[in-house]
Design a protein that fits this description.
By secondary structure, the protein is of the alpha+beta class. Helices cover 33% and strands 18% of the residues. The chain starts with a helix and ends in an 8-residue tail after the last strand.
Length: 136
């Protein structure tokens, strides 16, 4: 046990406590629905790392994706959305509709031609409301 502690202590002296930390302030946008018990059972946290990204809200609206929160106003190179979905199947249907949207396909093509990529990275996390959450 002492050997394990010594190894752990020696290793931690050479590693930072946190690999990465980020802080982001989100706000409800004009298009954000009011959070209710029917807002969704799962939530998708989506962060686009792209200096060339444009506003996706018109496309989202057309396919029925309604972010509850957005950080795009403060962070133009990393638009961030918290999106509620009733269930995983509803999420899949919404993103399939988004991917098939003609305007999105055109935007993708233009972005690839001009910049070689749409986003450097896209972070996606799925969250579930806790049993004591007002939206669960």
């Amino acid at each position: 046990m002492e050997q394990l502690s010594a190894i752990m202590d020696a290793g931690s002296a050479h590693r930072p406590t946190l690999h990465e930390q980020s802080v982001m302030l989100l706000e409800a946008a004009s298009f954000s629905p009011e959070p209710t018990a029917k807002s969704g059972k799962i939530f998708e946290w989506r962060v686009y790392h792209s200096p060339t990204f444009t506003d996706l809200q018109p496309l989202f609206e057309r396919v029925g994706i309604q972010p509850m929160l957005s950080a795009g106003a403060w962070s133009e190179s990393t638009p961030t959305y918290l999106i509620p979905f009733e269930n995983p199947a509803a999420r899949e249907r919404a993103w399939a509709a988004f991917g098939a949207d003609e305007e999105w396909i055109k935007m993708q093509r233009q972005c690839m031609e001009q910049h070689g990529q749409i986003a450097g990275a896209i972070e996606i996390s799925l969250w579930k409301a806790t049993s004591y959450s007002p939206v669960s």
